[in-house]
Design a protein that fits this description.
48% of the residues lie in helices and 12% in strands. Strands 3-2-1-4-5-6 form a six-stranded parallel sheet, with helices on both faces. The chain has helices at residues 16-27, 39-49, 69-80, 103-131, 152-172, 191-194, 208-211, 216-228, 239-250, 252-260, and strands spanning 7-11, 31-35, 56-58, 85-88, 134-138, 177-179, 181-184, 233-236. The protein has a single domain (7-260), classed as NAD(P)-binding Rossmann-like Domain (Rossmann fold), CATH 3.40.50.720. Helix 1 (16-27) runs parallel beside helix 2 (39-49), helix 1 (16-27) crosses helix 8 and helix 4 runs parallel beside helix 5 (152-172). Bound molecules: NADP nicotinamide-adenine-dinucleotide phosphate (NAP). NADP nicotinamide-adenine-dinucleotide phosphate is lined by residues 11-12, 14-18, 36-38, 41, 62-64, 89-93, 112, 139, 141, 184, 186-187, 189-191, 194, 210, 213.
Length: 265
């Protein structure tokens, strides 16, 4: 699969994995649409993409403003005529115990990590169906298989995301539409700085696991490879998370014991 002249829409493209995916896709010749809330950061990413040959469109919006989704899809179609790939990457993490977490925080995390993605997917699906092709790439998480302490809302939202896209994949397979769900482990980004605490405020601290996580550009290149290979699901991360997924699958009792030992990360 060649990305030259393909249209790749990336949400959460203003930092971290989304930013790295923008460069990895632009390098492969794709036209990239960059979405997130911080327009200045998107402009910075767009400027960095100029070294490559494709066209870049900065399309800022807040994912949780669902009323905007249909018009944003129209804007992309008017500019590029079609959408080949949508990387549903915008997301927010969490650092708080269940007993301390305000109920609204659960809703907020689900709004961004789940409902906004469902809404944008529903707005794009008819376009893919009319084209007879298209690829959804939800960026879930290892937390979508293994929920650890202080991630109850985050883990639940990523479990839900994986479940939603497993159904969609089966429904649209014969329509030529691909779903490649990505399960990153610990990746070196500022996700913990942007995570919500028990009050829904920014946690603001760098996690040791993120600080020593997989390089974000290596991660992006691996994700592009998985999309190209037409994978249904793809894990990218370190040996610890790979081991965790293996233990969860074959020795779940041991995994539940292991995650009891995780306290403050
Ligand atoms: N880093 C990891 O270890 C890791 C592991 C597993 C999964 N993931 C997943 O990877 C994705 C990207 O995370 P990251 O690590 O790259 O963290 P990040 O640097 O904090 O990136 C999050 C992105 O989401 C955007 N975003 C957040 N809320 C938004 C909203 N309401 N509307 C539109 N955009 C919004 C942010 O942009 P604005 O603030 O400009 O809106 C930013 O571009 C997330 O879905 C995360 O759950 C990350």
């Amino acid at each position: 699969m060649d990305f030259s002249n393909k249209t790749v829409w990336i949400t959460g493209a203003s930092s971290g994995i989304g930013e790295a995916l923008a460069y990895a896709m632009a390098e492969k010749g794709a036209n990239v649409i960059l979405s997130a809330r911080r327009e200045d950061e998107l402009q910075r990413v767009a400027k960095n993409c100029q070294q490559f040959h494709g066209t870049t469109l900065v399309l800022p919006f807040d994912m949780i403003d669902l009323a905007l989704h249909a018009s944003k899809v129209q804007e992309v179609i008017q500019t590029f005529g079609q959408i080949d790939y949508v990387i549903l990457n915008a997301g927010v993490s969490q650092r708080s115990y269940v007993q301390d977490t305000k109920f609204e925080v659960y809703r907020s995390l689900f709004e961004i990590n789940f409902f906004s993605i469902i809404s944008l997917t529903q707005a794009i699906l008819p376009v893919f169906q009319q084209q007879g092709f298209g690829c959804f790439v939800p960026i879930a998480s290892v937390a979508g298989r293994i929920s650890t302490p202080r991630r109850a809302a985050y883990g639940a939202s990523k479990h839900a995301l994986i479940g939603f896209f497993d159904s969609l994949r089966a429904e649209v397979y014969e329509q030529g539409i691909q779903v490649t769900t990505i399960l990153p482990g610990y990746i070196q980004t500022n996700i913990s700085l942007h995570a919500m605490n028990e009050h829904g405020e920014k946690y603001g601290k760098m996690d040791p696991n993120q600080a020593k996580g997989l390089d974000v550009n290596k991660t992006a290149r691996a994700i592009v490879g998985a999309i190209q290979a037409g994978k249904n699901e793809f894990f990218v991360g370190g040996a610890l998370e790979a081991f965790g997924l293996y233990v969860k699958r074959f020795f779940p009792g041991l995994l539940f014991y292991m995650i009891r030992k995780i306290k403050n990360t």
